[in-house]
Design brief:
With 267 residues, the protein is an alpha+beta fold. It is built from five helices and 15 strands. It has two domains: 14-216, BirA Bifunctional Protein, domain 2, CATH 3.30.930.10; 224-265.
Length: 267
């Protein structure tokens, strides 16, 4: 009877950095220098040029946020390049589980992988991939046939920040929710452990349970929201997310959208 592949333990180094431009950039440099190990994490007390989705900047104050990047080798988890949404959903569920411990059941996952509390954004996830030495975005490589060498999982969560740029429409921090001043570095270590455990679950048990959790905690599921695609603004009901990570909505007819195809418009 064939034996399952041996997966190295995910307990790995947690490294603190005083100040960096971006933890994802730093993690990428460590990969290129041959210094990265599967499951390794880098936490920054200060991140001066944090990266958000679609080229946006993640703004944060010093010692007020979780600015964390974790690198993994997807092949060790039996993940192929076509499984990128499985990784994205797994990370989102882990972040949700972590935040719910402190902020309660109003915590949701906004497609594809933002962290929301009620109608306010508490954090975000940016996963960057290296495919055979090439750095590629998470969702644009479903047809790529080469090997998925590394995934860089960047997580930013507002912890103690009380004031935000007026250009940000709906931010919130854990302190604003709970009234407590918790230490970001200690929370980041806890989050690192939770994420490694969730990745181990994905590897050992497959995607089904994680996918169900992702849908269970989906922001605005079965509710009507306003969306924008190109120059078209429309209202639609959020039905589900497909197993490939596409947003499925219902209005005059059912439509599916890839990440980046539509923009949420808040009322």
């Amino acid at each position: 009877m064939p034996q399952p592949p041996v997966i190295p333990p995910l307990e790995s180094s947690f490294i603190e950095l005083q100040s960096v431009d971006s933890t994802n950039n730093y993690a990428r440099q460590q990969i290129h220098a041959g210094l990265a190990q599967h499951g390794m994490a880098w936490f920054a007390h200060e991140q001066v040029a944090g990266k958000g989705q679609r080229g946006k900047i993640w703004q944060s104050e010093k010692n007020s946020t979780i600015s964390l990047s974790i690198v993994i080798k997807p092949g060790l988890l039996s993940l192929q390049i076509a499984d990128q949404f499985q990784l994205s959903a797994c990370v989102a569920v882990a972040v949700h589980d972590f935040f719910t411990k402190y902020a309660g059941d109003d915590t949701k996952i906004k497609w594809p992988n933002d962290l929301y509390w009620q109608d306010r954004k508490a954090g975000g996830i940016l996963i960057e991939s290296i495919v055979r030495g090439q750095e590629l975005g998470l969702v644009d490589n479903q047809s790529e046939s080469s090997g998925w060498s590394w995934a860089i999982i960047g997580i930013g969560i507002n912890i103690t920040q009380a004031y935000f740029s007026p250009h940000l429409p709906n931010p919130v921090s854990l302190k604003q929710i709970t009234g407590k001043s918790l230490k970001p570095v200690l929370l980041a270590k806890e989050l690192h452990k939770i994420l490694l455990e969730k990745l181990a679950e994905l590897s050992a048990k497959g995607f089904e349970n994680i996918y169900a959790q992702y849908l269970q905690h989906l922001y605005k599921r079965n509710e009507i929201v306003k969306l924008k695609k190109d120059n078209r603004v429309f209202e639609a009901r959020i039905k589900t997310i497909s197993r490939l990570g596409k947003l499925v909505v219902e209005h005059a007819l059912d439509e599916e959208f890839d990440f980046g195809e539509v923009e949420w418009l808040f009322r």
